[in-house]
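cron nightly-structures :: item 1 of 1
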Amino acid sequence: MSTTTPERRGPFSRPTKDDGPRATFRQLLPYLAEHRGVLGVVIALSIVGAGASLAQPLLVSQVISVVQAGDPLGWIVWALVALVVASALISGFQHYLLQRTGTSVVLSARRQLVRRMLRLPISEFDTRRTGDLVSRVGSDTTLLYAVITQGLVDAIGGALVFVGALIAMLVIDPVLLGLTVAVIAISVITVVSLSGRIRVASRKQQEKVGDLAAAVERSLSAIRTVRASNATDREIALVEKDAEGAWTQGIAVAKISALVVPIAGIALQVSLLVVLGVGGYRVASGAITIASLVSFILFLFMMIMPLGQAFGALNSVNQALGALGRIQEIIGLKSETERDADIMPVAAVETDDAITFEDVRFTYPSEAVAVHDGDDEPHDLTVLRGVSFSAERGKRTALVGPSGAGKSTILALIERFYDPTAGVVRLGGVDIRGLDRTELRAQIGYVEQDAPVLAGSIRQNLLLGAPDATDEECRAVLAAVNLTEVLERSGADLDAPVGEDGVMLSGGERQRLAIARTLLAAPPILLLDESTSSLDGLNEQMLREAIDAVAENRTLIVIAHRLSTVVDSDTIVVLEHGRVIGTGTHSELVKSTPLYRDLAKHQLLV
């Protein structure tokens, strides 16, 4: 089996077609357009400041001429001082507006990115690392700040200064101007040739920062497992490797920027030497006066300064566009609801069943599970193979079977985290793909297998699905799941903190809190995914009694490895390898389904 070694490319090499997501300046404009009012004021201030700056060399020339003539300076000095002070005040106010607008642009980008990110299909999260997504919100968006604060808007006023200085220099001495323009042209060509590589290098740097964030998130989220496994040093080494990768890409950006930043300074120095040499000769020959040469030099400085601003703006814009490409990659993805426009649900049918599966097949996307054998052939990712069953309204339906049989996937399809590859899932006879997702999920309470608890307080966790619930309702549902002891051991009552990922609660308490959160919303359908797996015998019995109490007139679909928790279900569906191999009551399945009988024997139920 042959392998192909990727071509190694340095930081100054040209970008190739597979350099990842890119953004154009046009995609940056909407972020600026949101603040066009403030930016208009900034541009107006830039124009006024440009006029004040251009007037200064003219006044200096007047001062020199008046002094040479021996006349009193009079108002000219005061006018020059007033211009300097006015320029400083305008610059300070403009700086404040730019800083404020830059921060606002970052806020707008973060809002837009978070709103899109939290509405993406679940399948997108299966194929992306959490840390990388966090990095796009926190790190990539920050680079947009530099577009506003590091020269882009300021360069507009600088352009006026540049053009004004150019015209004044043309009037003073076209010969000196021609020599100056020749030097500047070389610097501009150099900067433009490097700008595209800055964008590519910046995007790669942000990708490495995303890798670093993902590595840190991975280690911190499993810190207890890492410590217990004596793997701290190994995890540190892995994180440091990603940190070094981010550092390496940062150096690549620095190398290119190092060529851009001094170009304006070099252009100024070379131009100044040329002007002093040639200009001194022309003064000696009488072609121009000393006052004209001084004015020309001052205009030269004024022309080079906005050129430096333009180079800085080009640098910051290209870095921002590298990050914006990663932001737009997420914003450009379709949300759950947008993808629904491509779906054609099948016709509704008459039924009294709450949930119906009709020949449902489901295969996870290959991007979600990148598992290959030795021949580089992908494994079969099909989870459900023609599953059909019904959950009667107001009844309890249990799903049992070995791990990997597809039980949790069935609940995920009911919640529309995914849509079937083939077949139909119905709610009350209606294809759920034809229902509004918000309406669908309002009818379903879902307790996940891992029973996640959000960082914050008990109250915040409970109100996640029922934001209008009262304190009395919260306490009642906690009592129903035998969790009042958590309130009693903390003086904070419902505001008692649960810690990151519920670390301040036991495993059983986390699971019961997740169930209480679902029960508080009081949906007509409850999906419980192995909801008693972390409970001891006493708490399991108490929880079963609580579920029995709230289950009246509700439809329950329960997953459990402990058959003792589901033997009294109205219907038990037995799954193996993604297929339904038996349906019935406990006593019926013990007789008809060998797999179920074996599971019952192992758990001493027969």
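cron nightly-structures :: done
The radius of gyration is 35 Å.
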